[in-house]
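Figure 6 in text form: structure in, sequence out.
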């Protein structure tokens, strides 16, 4: 077990360096991974069962989007066991992060993870997206494999501050998902993501509301 932990630490440390992240993030990120792996055996929080596979597929996959995040408060919609929100909150302790999840067993895990990791910058909200409202718009809203782009945008646009982006983490680039969005005044940009240690396609779709054309 100690050997396995050492190998995972090495994999994560190399991955963090490749992403330009601090090496001291490895300890709290692995603490989160270990907690997720334990809970996952009972509560089925993630389809990824192998703790070693969680390093690239959950931890590094979450952090790879950081260069495209706006500053300010971030909402993670359909966060599940806290992805990408918890790794992002670990990396940016001064950023307010809200984790939105409707599943009770997952929000119980999220609360416990935030407690054990000392994440005072994280708020866990148990409700459905369509029932969630907030007086002040978020600086950014992110999701990871939550829904197709048009559905995601329609569900969260009222939660964005003016000009703030919505970020959808995807596998393969799916241009057909953008049908109708640009005509509705939404600017859409794809970015290819390279996740260290992960041999799979990853893309980030950034959607920003724009003023409709006149003339």
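Output sequence:
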């Amino acid at each position: 077990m100690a050997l396995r932990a050492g190998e995972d630490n090495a994999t994560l440390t190399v991955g963090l360096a490749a992403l330009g992240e601090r090496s001291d993030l490895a300890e709290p990120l692995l603490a989160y991974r270990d907690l997720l792996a334990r809970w996952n055996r009972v509560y089925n929080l993630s389809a990824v069962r192998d703790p070693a596979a969680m390093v690239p597929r959950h931890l590094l996959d979450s952090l790879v989007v950081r260069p495209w995040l706006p500053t300010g408060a971030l909402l993670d919609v359909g966060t599940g066991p806290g992805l990408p929100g918890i790794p992002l909150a670990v990396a940016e302790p001064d950023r307010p992060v809200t984790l939105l999840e409707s599943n009770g067993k997952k929000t119980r895990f999220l609360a416990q993870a935030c407690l054990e990791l000392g994440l005072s910058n994280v708020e866990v909200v148990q409700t459905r997206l369509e029932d969630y409202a907030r007086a002040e718009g978020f600086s950014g809203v992110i999701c990871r494999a939550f829904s197709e782009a048009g559905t995601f945008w329609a569900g969260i646009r009222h939660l964005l501050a003016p000009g703030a982006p919505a970020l959808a983490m995807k596998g393969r680039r799916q241009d057909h998902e953008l049908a109708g969005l640009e005509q509705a005044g939404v600017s859409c940009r794809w970015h290819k993501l390279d996740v260290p240690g992960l041999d799979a396609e990853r893309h980030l779709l950034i959607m920003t509301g724009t003023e409709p054309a006149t003339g």
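Caption detail: Strands lie at 74-77, 97-101, 122-126, 140-144, 165-170, 186-193, 202-209.
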